Amino acid sequence: MADGDNSRGPVEQTSGAEAEPGTGAIPAWTPWRHPLFWVILLGALVLRLGFVRFVTHPELVRGQFEFYGDEYSYHCVAATLAATGRYAEEPGDPLTAYRTPGFVLPLAGLYGLFGPLPAVGILWSVVCGVGLVVAMGWAGFALFGNHRAALGAMALSAILPSFVAYSALIMTDCLATLGAVVGMGALVNWERERRWQTIAGAGLWMGWSYLARPSSGLMLPLVLLWIWSARPYWCALWHSAAFGAAVAAWVVPWTLRNYLALGVLLPGTTAAGAMLWVSNNPLTAGLVQPVLPPELEGLQVPRDYFLGGWANREYLPPGMATIPRGLSEWDQHKYYSREAVQFVRGHPVAVLRMDAYKVWRLIKGDEPVQPRKMGQTGARKGLNLRAMVGPLERWLVLALGLVGLGRLLNRRRLFYLVGAFLLSAVVLVLIAYPSARFFMVGTSVLVLSANGLLARGSPGGSDQ
Fold first, then answer.
1. 27 backbone dihedrals φ, ψ, rounded to 5°
2. pLDDT per position as a tens digit, 23-65
3. What ranges make up the beta strands (E) of 289-420?
4. At residue 77, does pLDDT exceed 50?
5. Which of 58, 157, 194, 351 has its CA 20 to 30 A from that of 324?
6. From the CB of residue 297, how many other CB atoms can be counted at a distance below 10 Å?
């Protein structure tokens, strides 16, 4: 670029896309030399803080706080851990594995330092959101070796509605996506230099992403296949082991903790069963008419409102909404998992129709919203994201992302790697439901690919 990038010459000589795998040096990313980097960073911070102030939690200025959705659970587990050292939702509750520790542990540390204030949790989420913007720039430069692509990825991720919104809530999505994006950038660098330290670093970041949100684990088998397909074979085997060991460094302690606390070898979360069921049941497949609670009878909810989305038991017809009483957290997980699997096996045609509709809702940005939130106004209505996650985040990013992805076809292994991350995000939507938070990794991949159009020459090329 023409703005004083002193690393341009070396990048031209050592572009990863131009070198054979294992022989290229990693170009130096020096974003602090670009004034636009600091403008984007400051803009991302101000935008997220403004979103907190005017949309997600305007009550903070009055010294109040109203939890939204999963915020309460993350806050309570972190606050209890900070106060008592017990990993439970409330001090007197049984130990839990409902929330994994990737997001909770750092939050508990902050609560220990500053007190269990929800505002501290919000600031932690904002930091994760701004960190994701920086990670997008780093991954963009790793992928294309080009500061234009890196700064473009930062700029777009700084303003994307879902990236902003989930940075302004006490939720794990931005941190989980940050780990996945940094992991992908490290894998791109490994493709250049084939150092075991680089592949281990990728494993550490992706392992932490898994601990922040276990659904990130869908990427791990595809990444391992990608590593195994490298040449020479001995290098692929050794580095696959290094990657797996780095991931296990985070996952194994959590699994052992769950065995000691709950008596089960659980590497993930007990929330998985409920999440699987709420998005794979007769209502989300459009097989039954929703039944609204008395307080919501005035709302008009069509039969296909839940199709391809998610639905709690309270909207099912009588007799279908029962669950045995007195089940432990682990037994509830098993119960919901079994019901969901039985439903999928028993209704294959309806499930295929439902999955097709999930993809369509994802493409058009139709964020699933529960009827209880349909009548909410003001700031809370803004959290529905229906109007926000529309043309910009779906149609524009999807179109430009797919075109940019085509630029990687001449570098097949990079294409397969990026495609693996995108495929895992689509599979997650099919298993769960088409929420912007579940597709954040996919959105990140599309944003990175779209900004490859700003890079001149082939992927990995230098600034010209």
1. -65, 150
2. 466 668 888 888 999 999 999 999 999 999 998 899 999 999 9
3. none
4. yes
5. 351
6. 9
Residues 323-363 pLDDT 10s: 888 899 999 999 999 999 999 999 999 999 999 999 988 88
CB-based contacts of 234, cutoff 8 Å, min separation 6? none
* Contact present, 240 and 228 (Cβ < 8 Å): yes
The CA distance from 356 to 13, in Å, is 46
Q: List all residues 6 or more positions away from 96 whose beta carbon is below 8 Å from its beta carbon.
A: 77, 87, 88, 89, 270, 329
Whether the model pTM is above 0.85: yes
List of residues 6+ apart from 269 with CB closer than 8 A: 97, 98, 99, 100, 214
- Residue owning tokens 């495609």: 419
- Give the pLDDT confidence score for residue 365 in this predicted structure: 75
Tell which residue, 242, 248, 227, 236, has the closest CA to residue 196.
242
Tokens 């909207």 found at: 315
Structure tokens given for 270? 């007990």
Counting Cβ atoms within 10 Å, is residue 150 exposed (0-12), middle (13-18) or buried (19+)? buried
- Spatial contact of 160 and 445, defined as CB atoms under 8 Å apart: no
